[in-house]
Design a protein that fits this description.
This protein is an all-alpha fold. It contains five helices and no strands. Helix 2 packs antiparallel against helix 4.
Length: about 100
């Protein structure tokens, strides 16, 4: 639920900072996702039996890198309650690392 301007004035300062930080990061993620708009047609070229030019391969790599940098944000911003689950997620990843012997 997004608070309106009149509701934000009632909130404590630290809470307003958290809300503004979340909104700023959500706008950044949305801008990054919009910039990957041409990725699907490029991916479908291989599916349709066409080859990729070197320029198209570079564009695909650029899109994939951009999306890989967004994955932590997508988990924390899109799933309800996911910020509260981050410590559990970190513990689970650490257990996996220890099991592999790294």
């Amino acid at each position: 639920m997004a608070a309106g301007p009149s509701e934000e004035a009632v909130l404590p300062g630290w809470w307003r900072q958290i809300i503004s930080l979340q909104r700023r990061e959500a706008r950044r993620v949305l801008a990054e996702l919009v910039s990957t708009r041409g990725m699907m047609p490029l991916l479908m070229k291989a599916r349709n039996g066409e080859g990729w030019t070197p320029t198209e391969k570079e564009a695909l790599l650029s899109h994939l890198r951009r999306m890989a940098h967004l994955s932590p944000y997508l988990i924390a911003l899109l799933l309800p309650g996911s910020v509260l689950m981050l410590p559990v997620y970190a513990w689970w990843l650490d257990r996996r690392r220890l099991r592999r012997g790294e």
